[in-house]
Amino acid sequence: MSANPLAGSDVLSADQFSPDLCGVVFERARQYREALANEEKLDELHGRVLVNLFYEPSTRTSASFAAAMLRLGGQVFPISEIKSSSVTKGETLADTVRTLDQYADVIVIRNPEVGAAQEAAEAAEHPVINAGDGIGEHPTQALLDLFTIIEERGGPDGLTVTFVGDLKYGRTVHSLAKLLSRYDVTLNYVSPKSLGMPTELKEAVTVGQHETTDLESVLPQTDVLYVTRVQQERFPSKAAYEQAKGNYVVTPESLEPAKDDLVVIHPLPRVDEIDRRVDADPRAAYFREVKNGLYVRMALLALVLDGAG
Ligand code: NCD
User: Fold this and answer.
1) Is 229 touching ligand 1 by the criterion CB < 6 Å?
2) Cis amide leading into 269 (omega within 30)
3) Of 98, 149, 107, 89, nearest to 12 (Cα)?
4) CB–CB of 79/53 below 8 Å?
5) Which atom of ligand 1 is nearest to the CA of 170?
């Protein structure tokens, strides 16, 4: 194994990340956190260019990749108005990516199709980072979720992590369950029956798993509560969405039976699944999680671009 196993690599799936490799990323993320806290000016990606190729809406993910690149001295150009690009002229994803690959050193892609990031990686010579492929995966979000769990609780080993919400369409859940499956954790899946964890995911996960529709039954034993939004845009109809939403709302009252050192995380955006009054609870870590996303994405960019230029 080279000193930097991610040099020149694509980041497509959580499956790529062993605990050792997560350790490499997180160590670098902590270095950047400290450097930023000390107001150091970092310049190691000077002259490097990132393309943010977003076919789906994004606030956090595109902004945090952009901020990460800029904080390391690199530059960014976004292609997010896909309607005004060649896609509307019938260009294939592969051709769009092959073209942008001529201008950029790294491509961050979000697309509604499962497997789109893989397809992009096959078309590009430079590293491609999956920022969400439909209901497939969102590996960089899972890395920052895991980093947050480690920073908040000292590590995932021995913890019970409860996923609640839309486990069927939630790609962040899919990636994080895969990543956590390499550790000594217990996973609870809480959702309406129609939004349960996909069978292929449950088969891929190798740790203890427990499925229920009843959050109260598992909350007292939970160490990490991973709350997700019902993914409106993935539903076949508005009526189906209306029926599925609003089943689980985390409130100060509902958290009363939970542990004092519970950690509540959420990939955001939130709709109404966490009452805003919960934000003042020290156990609410979702905005700390956003900050962690910056450090983790700085680490990923620095590692994949190391020696790849
Ligand atoms: C998530 C996503 O896009 O999958 N958002 C994010 O990247 N933080 C979760 C979501 O949209 O609900």
Assistant:
1) yes
2) yes
3) 107
4) yes
5) 4
From the number of C-beta atoms within 10 Å of its C-beta (0-12, 13-18, 19+), residue 15 rates as: middle
Measured in Å, residue 269 CA sits from the centre of ligand 1 at 6
Measured CA to CA, the distance from residue 230 to residue 271 in angstroms comes to 8
Distance CA 247, CA 193 (A): 11
- Quickly tell me which residue has 């979720």 as its tokens: 145
Give every CB contact of residue 253 below 8 A, 6+ residues apart in sequence: none
Distance CA 94, CA 100 (A): 10
Say yes or no: CB of residue 172 within 6 Å of ligand 1: yes
Residue 209: its H or E element? strand 208-212
Ligand 1: residue whose CA is nearest its atom 1: 267
* Local confidence pLDDT in tens for the 309 residues of the chain: 457 999 999 999 999 999 999 999 999 999 999 999 999 999 999 999 999 999 998 999 999 999 999 999 999 999 986 765 667 778 899 999 999 999 999 999 999 999 999 999 999 999 999 999 999 999 999 999 999 999 999 999 999 999 999 999 999 999 999 999 999 999 999 999 999 999 999 999 999 999 999 999 999 999 999 999 999 999 999 998 998 898 999 999 999 999 999 999 999 999 999 999 999 999 999 999 999 999 999 999 999 999 543
Contact 239, 232 (CB under 8 A): no
